[in-house]
Task: structure prediction
Amino acid sequence: MAGNMKWNLVTGLIGFAGTLALSMPQNILKTAFIQSLYSFIFLFLITFLARWLLGLIAQSAHTPESAAEAVSRELEREEEVRGTRIDLATPEDDSPVLPQAETDTGFTPLNPPKLSTDFGEHRTEDAVKALRQMTDK
Result:
């Protein structure tokens, strides 16, 4: 973090005093004091957050690392570790697939009869009779 906790306290106390001075003429002492306390807490936390962010920025500025440096460092680590680990992953099978001899298993695919939409004369007459009976009442 940039700086120390004095910055948080100073900022909070300035906010406390300013809020107390500005709210005393319009409010009673208790209300002015509570508002000043809220101002102190808010400014203390905002200053803390700002210092923390500045610390992160300063820390990242001190250690610039390019992508090439990161890759070369990772490769060096891999070379140091090579031969000390066991890889239990199974590699891909690169061998050619051999054709299997076809054996007669007795399986024949199902061949269902095809459905047709032709109802024929008999079914059409039955449908007409049923329609007439429903409409006659």
